[in-house]
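Internal tracking record. Fields below are filled automatically when a chain is submitted to the structure queue. Please do not edit lines marked as system-generated. If the sequence contains nonstandard residues, flag them in the REMARKS field before resubmitting.
Queue: standard
Priority: normal
Entity type: single polypeptide chain
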Amino acid sequence: MSTSSHNYLAVDLGASGGRVVAGMLSDRLTLTEIHRFSNGATNFAGQLQWNILGLWSQLQDGLRAAAGQLGSANIVSMGVDTWGVDFGLLDRDDRLLGNPVCYRDARTRGMMDVAFAKVPRAEIFAQTGLQFMELNSLYQLLAMSQAKAAMLENARSLLLMPDLFHWLLTGEKSNEFTNATTTQFFNPTKKRWATELLDKLGIPTSFLGNIVPPGTNLGPLRRDLAEEVGLASTDVVLPGTHDTASAVMAVPAIGPCLPNPNWCYLSSGTWSLMGVEVPEPVTSDTCASLNFTNEGGVGGSIRLLKNIAGLWLIQECRRVWKQNGREFSWDELVRLAESAPALQSLINPDDPRFGAPSDMPATIRQFCSENGEPTPDSEGAVIRCALESLALRYRQTVLSLEKLTDSRIDTIHIVGGGTQNKLLSQMTADACNRRVVAGPVEATAIGNIMMQAVAHGDVAGIEEARQVVARSFPVEEFCPKNTAPWDDAFQRFQKWM
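SYSTEM-GENERATED OUTPUT FOLLOWS
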């Protein structure tokens, strides 16, 4: 590892907010938050769209602030990570064809059935190895194709969200590997776009670009942008642009991770993404039946994982209660949940009705009522129901991962914002009967920065990067305490799976 100190910038964009974070790397990594801003999809003419111009403006504000705080010549590189599946389309003149549409928009409803009528489900999985979710890019494009959208006909370049920002930053178009794998039209075995699948579905392929790995240096900022924000000597380096890929890179696990680790990761935020790193995609019938996904990781690895509805359940409850005049802090919600009776009411957190309801607390109560579960009768009971159901979903996922990898998982590494919910961490340890290590909180930004450091030569590789993370940020351990009640609850829970 290099003994000199260098500064890197991570632009971390999530569905509810974004940040520009500086990382100073010497023997340890030190983070400084430079700029923070909110994000969210807006209903525009009946469609949920992202405010791409607003996000771009905020990103530039963050770069200006970084130049002012750190000095224009002191930032080696920067990179952007975002959520997966969503994209922008450029025409032949490189003009953006409308705002990118949010994955929660209703246009994809029913599109999986349309796809299966054209191409069997088993064939789609064999070509892509991806979990079937209605929000995947494949079904977004299919919806546009079915509607004969002019935008699709005029498209010459498809750029996933981080690719779009990297193009705005540098003028270079690229499709970064980790985010490309979230589309459900990437073939992880052949390591290229699944063009045969798209042809059968009647979706154009001419707008697909070259797939490039994390660590690729796209070069300097556009000259006019560099002058405007004051970063004349900063390069743009691709991290694992899918936020989970960056978060997994920041797991503070010591020792080689492949081929069969004794740990799994749980990236906990709006979504919960739980899985292991494997050297090659797993496309077996068992994997297909369990509906697991093979997504790209850093260092050429594959992230074998399950997408699980995460703290979105809690976020939406909090939002609805605030609209109704009852505003709770996150800590207050945890305290209310702690005071509610344990394991009284359970839900399937991945039931489609929880995807984008207008009233999450009412939807949770309705699910309980319809499925013979006691109806939560207070805010605390609703939150406890959601958290305990997530913990039981994690248990089921751990058991499935062990089956798929034929190896025992002893430790669950929780990273991301969800690590701040200590109640959920303890519930996870109890429900799964596994040791839980929670931290770091800022995993996505850390992983983004460490990939840049690897590309620059400051860190030798993924294993050394994780060693740096382990000595730079505190973690908290949670050991199983009272597992017997969770065994009984798991029997109830499995009826929905």
